[in-house]
């Protein structure tokens, strides 16, 4: 299995395209969120203000976490496809498979106040980078929701943390739409 943090872009894309079960959509969702964090960090780095250095450092820190979660998603997916679907612990494995996307969602949600701060006081020359970051966070969130839905499809007792994460994701998507609109309005 490819470790995302150690892959160059060409190798990573080749591994996604390969006739192998992983990396798949969960890893791609994590990478999209990591790219969004990188753009957020870039804009904060080029901006002046009290919070910009902190936003930069936090966004850069999230990149590593997201790549680790992409690898975790791949590892768990491999365990799911190799598992006996009739085993007593299979439902627990499905719940575990829904947790990596849940954690990715949480990281994406944490970026909303940072995006708001940077879009408000950040370098206006990079407003489109913030809009693209918002689009990427949205794509990651939608991908995570899709993966969560397939993983919990057969689960009888869905953990509250997964249900709450899905609810929070919907609110986050609404906020991302507003941020995206601000960046689009700025270039119109």
Give the CA-CA distance, first to last residue. 44 Å
Radius of gyration: 17 Å
Determine the CATH topology.
Answer: Four Helix Bundle (Hemerythrin (Met), subunit A)
Structural class by SSE content: mainly alpha
Looking at the overall shape, the CATH architecture is Up-down Bundle
CATH class: Mainly Alpha
**Helix amount, in percent?**
over 70%
Task: Give a count of the beta strands, DSSP E runs of length 2 or more.
Answer: 0
Order of helices and strands: HHHHHH
Number of domains: 1
CATH superfamily descriptor? Formiminotetrahydrofolate cyclodeaminase monomer, up-and-down helical bundle
State the major sheet: none
Uncertain regions: pLDDT < 50 for 5+ in a row?
none
Total helical elements: 6
Q: Which outline best applies?
A: globular
- Beta content comes to under 5%
Short description:
The protein has 188 residues and is mostly helical.
Tags for this model:
single chain, 188 residues, mainly alpha, Four Helix Bundle (Hemerythrin (Met), subunit A), 6 helices, 0% strand, globular
Q: Overview of this structure, please?
A:
- By secondary structure, the chain is mainly α.
- The chain has a single domain, classed as Formiminotetrahydrofolate cyclodeaminase monomer, up-and-down helical bundle (Four Helix Bundle (Hemerythrin (Met), subunit A), Up-down Bundle).
- The protein is 78% helix and 0% strand.
- The chain has six helices and no strands.
- It has helices at 9-17, 25-45, 52-82, 90-121, 127-152, 160-187.
- Helix 2 (25-45) runs antiparallel to helix 3, helix 2 packs antiparallel against helix 5 (127-152) and helix 4 runs parallel beside helix 6 (160-187).
- The longest helix is centred in the middle third of the chain and has 32 residues, at 90-121.
- The chain is globular and about 55 Å long.
- It starts with 8 loop residues before the first helix and ends with a helix.
- The relative contact order is 0.15.
- The mean pLDDT is 93.
